[in-house]
């Protein structure tokens, strides 16, 4: 508890809540993360997802075993991350394919009995060791630097319109001196946008998490059941504290095979200028 001494009050409360929850649910069992298929199916019990995401823009994804566990990500043939599973640990090996397959780092993820990541570190240095705290709904509340707990991200959620869950509403970033750096606010598709389903059957992690996280590892809880519609990013510049705001709007094209799988994601700024167009591809998982 030594790290709580210099932490702000809200951080102390979140850390203690997470520790109590973790103690109540601890088991002496070998755990493993939920597969992408399991996460997608759980979004709505009436829907069975029979595809795995294998291509997301420049990223190619691989899976292994009867549970279709995520094992490898290759981006533009320039670098790869491979994941090995052992007990409550996941080890990610980062390899620079463009530099004679040089291994740059090892990422270590420690899971609790629910398969949620409670700590991650970039090896061999411990400079970026991050601790994760969750609420009773297994949603991420706090991610903080283990050695400098003021350096953190705080997550807030709002009740969904149908009352069946809650979605990530905002993420607030602070530096090691407890100075506000950035805020992210999220809005979601409500079912009337673009003529497509509002549910996200193939969810990935937000790309704004702490160090040593991965977009495709389903070990950081559930952020929302719905497709993301808009992200508002406010960056606070020191010393004047005046925020600069950026807005990102997302639209989707779906496959016509009845699976509700996303074929492409278009991101535009507040002026309507296209920032990116990401195409996705899927495969049928084994064991279904």
UniProtKB/TrEMBL annotation:
This is DUF4595 domain-containing protein. It comes from Dyadobacter fanqingshengii. The lineage of its organism: Bacteria, Pseudomonadati, Bacteroidota, Cytophagia, Cytophagales.
